[in-house]
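Protein modeling request. Please complete all fields; requests missing the sequence field cannot be processed.
Requester role: graduate student
Desired output: 3D structure, token encoding
Chains: 1
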Amino acid sequence: MRYQFKFRPYRRRFVRTLTTNHGNWDIREGIILRLTDETLRVGWGEIAPISWFGSETLEQALDFCRQLPEEITDEIIFSIPDELPACQFGFESACEWGSGKWGVGSKGDEKNNFITPNSSLLPYSGLLPAGEAALNQWETLWQQGYRTFKWKIGVDAIAHELEIFESLIHTLPASTKLRLDANGGLTYEEANLWLWTCDNLKANGELPLEIEFIEQPLPVEQFQGMLELSMSYETAIALDESVATLGQLTACYQQGWRGIFVIKPGIVGSPSHLRKFCQQHEIDTVFSSVFETAIARLAALQLAAELSRNNRAIGFGIDHFFEQEETWLQSLCKDL
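Delivered output (336 residues):
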């Protein structure tokens, strides 16, 4: 198949700064792709890299797009190197969109509403702000229907965060599930303390809600430490930065990880290769956002609907970090 190829960079400012152990994030930048096949069917894709998380940089993605001809083929798309995982995802998902596989592609479709696939059966996890702000933000998300929340840790002094945590778990309703996301920012001793605290609260019957898991407690290079911790405590550990790309995910599986894998489709790489791996190994997954637009979110949710197991909430409860995007996105796509 041959496609007419167009692309356009974008910039979106967060409503509020996103604070993690990696630092502050104020502007989301990416690239919107448009592929038009020989029957004039349009496929949309998005490249939304996060270089500090393990993908290529935005500039590398732009350089790749700039060096492509105006007409490209399936062969070009499916030979994008693994060093460009966000590009792999963007181009391949544009092909799937354009093929009509999801029931959204159509001829001359410049006003596509970017319909969400049938993922309504999957619960969503809402992202809380770091620090004490979480104590004031959860209720709004609860009213919107969220019952699973993720709270960033490893951002402030551990003693202070444990104090906030104590307040948070006794403020949230008892039916809540809470995920603690360290973004690799804890020391081995701090990770032990967090896991011990969660286990101890549960054992003493002091935990009114469920701590579902602690996400990426240690840096990527300390995989063995996380493997040891996962065998030492009842509280589960999920890998995130350690499995950012399909190559990393495969390596961790081969080294013995059988816990939870947090998969960010927007930067993991080829959707077809991801499907094959997940179906072959039946891993325990949590699908999560990279703060993409509705275009990449459609592709990511499609994968989540296909591959999620254990009914774990998917990490796409991030709309409150941006202004309403529909008009902005339609305008951007019209210019392609």
